[in-house]
Every structure is written in structure tokens, then in C-alpha cells.
Amino acid sequence: MKFLISIISICLTVLLHVDILQAQQVPSAFAAPVIKKVEKNERAAFQRQFSEMIMTGEGFQGNTVIDNLPTTEIRARLQKVYGDPTMRLEDFIGQSNVRPGNSIQFEYWFIVNDSIPMMVLDIDGPFTLGMVYAGSNRFVDMMPEIKRTLSRALMNVSSMGEFQDVFYSPERNEWFNVEYKNGVYKTDKISRPARFNNLRLN
Q: Rounded to two decimals, what is the model's pTM?
């Protein structure tokens, strides 16, 4: 009987030890995603690394605080947390096959947990709320938590980052200077800047 009790005790100890090891070794699904911005000089490497992945908006449908903020304010928060955008309208100058859909105010590209591509961009420049999100279709189940993590990072700032962008609206056929400086948001209609003369967006 004592021998049987000893065997049972040993087995329970081994099982408990295995459970602890497994808990230590399995990546935590509850750990906050690590979101790293792609810099301008890293765009080509990003495109090569994720060329086989399909980007989708699926998984980002859940509402967060930033979805209800003016896009101009979100842009200032992004500037504070991540610095300059990965892409702005002027980055399309000199590129071929530019379409009206490329008429962005800003794009931020990210790599999440060193392996998941994600992008956020404006919907209609400064004239709406929220942003457009896109991520890899292989990781749709992770997108809600990634979006919540991004929202928390943007909402935790105590001050906004100053920026100045140029936005062209194909629907309005008008150009705008969009900025946040000295605590003031401004969207002013402007003439087409000379540096954009060779950029065809409609």
C-alpha cells in the first residue's frame, strides 16, 4: 500500500512539473502585442518580407476609442507615439501606376511581434473619423487585440505631436494643407504645390 501511495505521489509530482514547464514555454496569448513602425528606408524590405501575404481588414471591426476621434487628432497622436508616417502623398512622386486610391494623407506601416504586417491610413484625409486598418489574413484572430493595443498606445499620450501634411481629394478635386501646430488643428484649401505637378491622381 505504501509503495502504491509513493508511486501515485511521484506521478502527481511529475505531472505538476510538466504543467508548470508547459505554462512557461507556451507563448502567452495574453501578452500585449509589440508594435514596431516601419521607417521610410525600411519600406522595400517590408514589401519583400511580406510579399506572399494577403492584407485584409477582417478582424478590425471591433470599435475602439480612436475609431470615434477625428482623423486629424489621430494623426497627431500617431506622430507623438511613432513619429513621421511611413508614407505620405509626396512619396508617390516619381512612381508609375499611381491611382486615385493612392491619394492618401498618411500611411503608417507596422510589424507586430516581428512577424505580422499591419497598416493604418486615413479614410478621407481630415474630413472624417477613424482610420482604415489592414493586416495579414493569416493572423485575423489576433487583430482585435492588436487594434486595442494600438488604441491604448495612442490614447495614453499626454500631448499631441506636431505635423504638416498635404492632402489631395479626388472627389473634390481640391488640395489641402493639414497640420497641427502650437496646439491648433488647421485644414486649409491650397493651390496644387509645384512639387506635385508630375503626380497624376485622377
A: 0.83
Question: What is the number of domains present in the chain?
Answer: 1
43 grid coordinates: 519600406
Q: Does a structural domain hold residue 94?
A: yes
Name the packing angle between helices 143-155 and 71-82 (round to 10°): 90
Which H helix or E strand runs over 145? Answer: helix 143-155
In angstroms, the CA 85 to CA 101 distance is 17
- What is the C-alpha separation between 181 and 162, in angstroms, rounded? 5
Is 7 part of any domain?
A: no
Question: Is residue 106 assigned to a domain?
Answer: yes
pLDDT digits (tens, 9 = 90+) for 83-105: 999 999 999 988 877 877 789 99
Residue 176 lies in a domain: yes
